[in-house]
């Protein structure tokens, strides 16, 4: 009996040993280990350089897998960060700021509206807003009258607008006459010239009015003669001109606001508009231009640097591009330090609760904090920790220097 048990055990061990696969090979009937994900589930192999199939993600080099749970929509996926970092909230700017890109949303219609606006500015340490609503004629004089009637007349200034309709014979003389009247009424500059200039405004013959159209040269020369900075918004983010697919960083925004898309069959390309804009800047070296939204080059600071190097008459402002500034803290810090004399603070839409995000990015070294509009950016921001001397220039000194009609006294030295 004992011999039988020993013999059976030996036979079992021998059989088991013969069934084992060679070293490095998976058991019979199982896929190679490299094609298995966590938990032993089989993945989908791809070739080097290929993208994972839709609905899957890369879990190992060249191996993709779909999640077991039904994936949430991009709207519902809101991971809560577990990163523990220092948080330095900055409700007020360190130095009094000039918002060069103000859109006060109808608050300039009465003295009470101006008082409401100023109360919000006080809470943020924004000493002055430059209303950049492309106002002209009666609309501009009504706004200036409301400002003058309030006890806060030194807190708001207004840019004049230009009407680009019906460009042709006689247009330049009419436009210059209106601009001179607006300046006499109290306008301190020109703008915000809107993105429709170059994108959609047409000449009487139906052709697109190009940004560098020679018929416009007299108005830009008049701005130089009158000492008026020209605040110009050209195009929109480059992603708005690209296909709306799942590689587009602005997919969610373009899906929420489809009117922000610029299909190639209906609009000039982003690069065409940039070329026309740069031609304008180069052709009028005596005119001071301020490229709104960092010229839509906040995601390509080397390109913006080349533009500023080549065109000493050009400045830029930071409105509505904080999402790009704050995701490259080292590069942005170095850029702001190098071009500290060429950058103006501006916010764009007037939402008082959003200004402190700018202060926090500019003034702190904080890591990995939320941006204020998820549909603009699904990534986090970082502080770029600007020196005080740079903050003073960006917040107010540069705007004062190029806009001589702004009140020049009472600012920090």
From TrEMBL:
It comes from Gemmatirosa kalamazoonensis. One of its GO terms (biological process) is secondary metabolic process. One of its GO terms (cellular component) is cytoplasm. Keywords: Hydrolase, Lyase, Signal. GO terms for molecular function: carboxy-lyase activity; hydrolase activity. The keyword Signal applies. Residues 17-67 are annotated as: Disordered. It comes from the Bacteria. This is Amidohydrolase 2. The keyword Nuclease does not apply. Residues 165-402 form the Amidohydrolase-related domain. Residues 1-19 form the signal peptide. InterPro entries: ACMSD, Amidohydro-rel, Metal_Hydrolase. Pfam families: Amidohydro_2.
